[in-house]
Amino acid sequence: MSVTAARGFEASGVVAGLKSTGLPDVALVVNRGPSSAAAAVFTSNRAKANPVLWSQQVLADGVARAVVLNSGGANCFTGSFGFQTTHSTAEAVADALEIGAGDVVVCSTGLIGTGDQAFRDKVLAGSRAAALALAPDGGRDAASAIMTTDTHPKEAVVQGDGWSVGGMAKGAGMLAPGLATMLVVLTTDADLPAAALDRALRQATRVTFDRLDSDGCMSTNDTVVLLASGASGVAPAEADFAAAVTELCADLARQLQGDAEGASHDITVEVVNAVSEQDAVEVGRSLARSNLLMAAVFGNDPNWGRVLAAIGTTQAEFDPYDVDVSFNGVRLCAKGAPDRPVTEVDMTPRALHILLDLHAGSETATILTNDLTHDYVHENSAYSS
Amino acid sequence: MSVTAARGFEASGVVAGLKSTGLPDVALVVNRGPSSAAAAVFTSNRAKANPVLWSQQVLADGVARAVVLNSGGANCFTGSFGFQTTHSTAEAVADALEIGAGDVVVCSTGLIGTGDQAFRDKVLAGSRAAALALAPDGGRDAASAIMTTDTHPKEAVVQGDGWSVGGMAKGAGMLAPGLATMLVVLTTDADLPAAALDRALRQATRVTFDRLDSDGCMSTNDTVVLLASGASGVAPAEADFAAAVTELCADLARQLQGDAEGASHDITVEVVNAVSEQDAVEVGRSLARSNLLMAAVFGNDPNWGRVLAAIGTTQAEFDPYDVDVSFNGVRLCAKGAPDRPVTEVDMTPRALHILLDLHAGSETATILTNDLTHDYVHENSAYSS
Questions:
Q1: Are residues B152 and B301 in the same domain?
Q2: Which of B33, B70, B85, B202 could form a disulfide with B120 if both were Cys (CB 3.0 to 4.6 A apart)?
Q3: Where does the entry annotate site (Cleavage) (chains A, B) (predicted)?
């Protein structure tokens, strides 16, 4: 149900001919109200796609009534023609729903540089068809239509006291800090103003999607949008709401990690006893960014030397000769010297837990990442995105 | 001839049993004088190996008489026992040559965490054997003994006016900014003081080894050392000497790039019209660090969209919508929009030239890198280093 789990929402997913596979490729999520409060976060990449440039303006007033999403083309670096395509897409949806185009968020994903007249024609026709296909149980259709190299739709729901929040996500590669190549739509029937939604969303993404770093690459199109219908008539405490949104985003982030392109390990890097949370994040991320370490994990090699070589490149406050490194509960390095034999570590499960004790402070952070595999190289050399 | 091309030097390479292949694995380079001026640069990784910690102290007074190098073990994160091994190695060489241990540079390469009693015994015996095997034409033997995953020894010589400078290098992976996993010994018979050698070496490495970024990973053991014998009796102008050292380092850097682990393309990223040289370096490096782009290159896909997505993550001063991108002379993107069709680019040669015109200033920089291939993943998952 995902985006249609909360009251006040309808959704759809239709075939617009953008995907060569003939699978659904345009999705629409509509907020029927009574509230139309909304918030969003976007890629921190300076190279932003046209839909991001457009949607940032849509969200400026904290109001959005619909989100239209297409796969099969990122509409990024497509010139002024591409921006006009995004604008026309919002207008097509607005006309069909009898709302203003300035309340329509647009998201696109696919190959950068794709956005010619044929693309525009298909997106516009698909948007109109999606408006006609809207249904109160259309969440799964929408979640399927936004898939690119994803192997399955990603949905989750968290129940509050008299209200709920649900969501869908796409993105199986290019996962990086400041958001992944990832489109996420969250919907809630809680009745909260846009400013509260914004605070909850930023709090949630900071510790979930922003700490998912599959391959260090950052997309041009990342968008996470939260729509509130207020249809429950319930105004939850902000802390409760933020906790639910965080739980929801954590669930979706784990689903994205588990479906990362070509990955054979889902890696949880836990950094403890750092001087600051920022230090812990930087140290954890340096592991996620080390091709040498991530290739070793693919080979089931618990290469703690590559861990230390990676963290030595950071600015974080710690002594490299006072660090403990554990793989799946086995401490292989204590205070910068060999400890237990590497043969004690079982690297065969898909889940891998790397624990780094910096012995420098009391702060902690967890980064989610994936290994570097033959399949990652294959998918990203054979598939243009 | 490499390190024995200049007058006043002897070298050797011997089998110490550190490599499982039985190939030579301990090298020695000795400066017979009359001068013993020296300079060096080391990894900027905070996780420094014992030989680096030792050799930094050796070079503090600008004097070095010998460099002993072993493959088959990095002697990094091996505790105080490991540091003692480095110290003993310098003493073994010093005793054999009747010089002070404080004038012996030690370099190691191989698996981090390797440095037990058996390792120490082999390194010490190998160092003594290497001293007995010294020869005026031993350069090639030394260059061979420092190889790890290198497929061939790397040597170069540049002739000055009455003097020369030559060198050897190892390192076929982990090439990264702030030096690669790379051991380089340069020798000259020019008669220059340590301060002049230091200036020339830093000037040369800044624009050569520091701009070679194969996989973004930085080693714990990188060392580039320059020894001057003064045996020519010629004191060249500093500018001439620095130019020769730069030419030599550029030659060796290209050899390292051409032998990078598993690579199928040697990529020259040329960034022009940047506001500053630092901006140009940052932009060029962002391409070298993009796994998505480097996998696309492996697949012969001139994916200019991934170029723009990569540079958008930098702090450099430019407008992403005012950038031109060319692959092998074909401009695929002009001012952030598609230009020539990608089918016009021939990606099959090993050499690839990516030109980025930022249209922001007048500074330029060139970064050397390699693509991300199945073989890279294979070598770095199967081989522990």
A1: no
A2: B85
A3: 180-181
pLDDT at B344: 97
Q: Which of A233, A258, A283 is the last residue of a domain?
A: A258
* B190 and B232 Cβ atoms separated by less than 8 Å: yes
**Residue-number span of the structural domain to which A276 is assigned:** 266-382
**CA atoms lying within 13 Å on the CB side of residue A42:** 22
The answer to whether residues A215 and A296 belong to one domain is no
For residues A189 and A164, give the distance between their C-alpha atoms in angstroms, rounded to a whole number. 6
* CATH (domain of B324): 3.10.20.340
Domain boundary among B225, B258, B291: B258
Q: Cα separations (Å) of A190 from A6, A115, A234, A252?
A: 8, 37, 6, 20
pLDDT band of residue B97 (cuts 50, 70, 90) is: very high
- Within chain A, which residues score under 70 in pLDDT? 1, 172-181, 382-385
pLDDT one-digit tens code per residue, A132-183: 999 999 999 999 999 988 888 999 999 999 999 999 988 854 444 333 468 8
Q: Which of A44, A46, A218, A343 should one mutate to test binding to chain B, selecting the residue with the greatest count of B CBs within 10 A?
A: A46
**In this complex, do B77 and A174 lie within 8 Å of one another by their Cβ atoms?**
no
* A286 has binding-site annotation: no
Residue A337 is nearest to which of B79, B372, B382, comparing CB atoms? Answer: B79
Tell whether A361 is within 8 A of chain B (Cβ): no
Q: Which domain CATH number covers B176?
A: 3.60.70.12
Task: Determine if residue A170 is labeled as part of a ligand binding site.
Answer: yes
Residues 33-62 in A contacting B (C-alpha not used; CB under 8 Å): 45-48
Is B122 in CB contact (< 8 Å) with chain A? no
Residues A231 and A327 in one domain: no
B311 has a chain A CB within 8 A of its CB: yes
Chain B closest-CA separation from residue A111 CA (Å) = 8
B78 is in an annotated binding site: no
- Total domains, chain A: 2
Q: Which residue has the higher pLDDT, A382 or B342?
A: B342
